[in-house]
Each structure stands twice: as structure tokens, then as C-alpha cells.
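Bug report (template v2)

What were you trying to do?
Predict the complex of my protein with NDP.

What happened?
Run completed; filing so the output is reviewed.

Input:
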Amino acid sequence: MTGGMYLEKRYAVVGNPIAQSRSPEIHLAFAAQFGDVIEYTKHLVTLDGFGAHAQAFAAAGGCGLNVTVPFKTHAFKFVDECDDAAAAAGSVNTILFQPDGGSRGCNTDGVGLLNDIKYRHGVDLTGASVLLLGAGGAAAGVVLPLLNSGVAQLMIANRSKDKALALVAKFETIFAQKGVLSALGLDEIPSKADVIINATSFSLTGGSVPLKPSVVQGAFCYDMSYGKSAEFCRWASANAAKYSVDGLGMLVEQAAEAYWLWHAKRPNTEAVMTQLKRLMAAPEHG
Ligand code: NDP
């Protein structure tokens, strides 16, 4: 059977762990909007098994993969070519397997975050001072889109400051404007910022909010975590943030961008947000 028989049909999300992923529900809901018939499954992959799994999926006719923790860097190394966002971040969350056998890697996290902040929450980042907490894969994916959205300051604060320094060094070579980017340790965080984005996984690793409560007062706070894990969102809200949201919108928007890359169709994300919130509010889900 040739791979071509399955073209435009089989998709999956790959991660470890993967049980918590909502990507299948989201992509199947998008597909239903257009009457597209697709298969979208979750794949748990061993920590050293990403490349072999992706190769086997493509060989069996798979058309595209979404990639989540901890494989985004593995995916970047795996693909034959990638878009500018993925190249800048060194991280791929969407792979397109092409009919000629090649693979293209993209990173839709940045577009997802920016679309959610700007269009769903109506926040204009022009001239804003932004504090980005974390320097892992998710943070790396959003640095360039944040810089390109006209922020006055982008401070990257991380538990291990060397990782924040490395991110800043990398993006300073591609972003011409000087004095916008800075790297901080968690003990160097300023007393105020207009926008605070949590891109750490402290709520998954059993840590606590790496900030003093006074920093979030009056700020727009965005937690990339969502659902039960959105501890920063709830904490910021309890500590007088101006506005505090979780990362469900980013999740749906990055998926919509992946859908666009795979199918050249723009789904209605608002309808899927509503469906997803209802699903997550059900007692058996989180
Ligand atoms: P990584 O493992 O690549 O990075 C984790 C980051 O969190 C590092 O900066 C790490 O710091 C920091 N960290 C972990 N534990 C603590 C702690 N106890 N205190 C302070 N800092 C801590 O993960 P990702 O970047 O891929 O993901 C980060 C979060 O973003 C996850 O919760 C993920 O679910 C979420 N996410 C949401 C998306 C969405 O669409 N809504 C998309 C992508 C990610 P250090 O370097 O010092 O270890």
C-alpha cells in the first residue's frame, strides 16, 4: 500500500506524557466545521523514540504531526526544513509530511499566543513592558512574535538564568533593535510590568509561583498552562492582576494555525473554545 492512499487523512499528536492532550478533540472539531474527514490520534512515545516514531508514521501514510513536551527540539532536529518561527526558536510543534517524502517543521505557538492576546483578549502589546517567565521550549517559541508585535521591553526571567541569557543572545542576533531584550534571574524581577506571561511548568513540577504578589498588581497576566494546571492564572487573579487568563486560547489558536498549514482552511476557534470549556468543566475531565 502506498503512503499516498492516506494523504490528507492521518494526523496525530506526539508527546510524553500525552493522555492530557486536547489536540484530538480540537482538530476533530475543526474538521467537523468543514466536513473534512480526518483521523487524529494521540501517540505516547518513549523519550528516545521520537525520530523512529515520526519516520514510521510518515512511512505509513501520515500527513502531519503535532509535537508536544518533551519533543519539540527533537522535532526541530528531525525535519528536513523549517519555517522562520521554528528556526528562530529551535523548536517545532507542527510537522507536514510532504508527498515527495520530505518533512517541513513549523512553530505555531507564537502565532497562537499573539492571536489569543490580541484578538480574543483585545490587548495591544505596542509599547508594553513584558515579563516572560521561563526559558524553555514554549518561551523560545514566543520570543520573536512578541518582539515583532512592538513591545518596548521583553524581560525573560528564568530559574536557571543561563538559559534566559542564552535565549537573549540568540534572539539579539536576529532582532536588530537594541535594548529591548534582557535576561534575568528570578531574584532580579522588577517590581512592575504591563504584561506578565507564565511559560514555566512550575505547576506541573510541583513548584510555587516564582513571583512576589505585588508584581502582578494591575498587570495583564497570561498563563500558558490551562485547566487545573493554570495555577499562575488563579494566583494572579487573587493578587489583583488587572486581567488574568489561562492558555486554553493559545492552545486552540496554535491548533488553528496548524490546521491552516495542513488543510489551508481557517477554522472558527471561538466555537471550539466553547466546546472545549464545556468538556473540561465536566466532572470526569480537568
Ligand atoms: P520546558 O520543559 O521546555 O520548560 C520549562 C520551564 O519552566 C523552564 O524555563 C524551567 O526553568 C521552568 N520551571 C519548571 N519548574 C519550575 C519551578 N518550580 N519554578 C520556576 N521555574 C520552573 O517546557 P515548555 O516550555 O515546553 O512548557 C512550559 C509550559 O507551557 C507548560 O506548562 C506547557 O504545558 C505550557 N504550554 C502551553 C501551550 C499552550 O498552547 N497553551 C503551548 C506550549 C506550552 P529551568 O530552565 O530553570 O528548569
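What did the reviewer find?
The chain has twelve helices and twelve strands. The mean pLDDT is 94.
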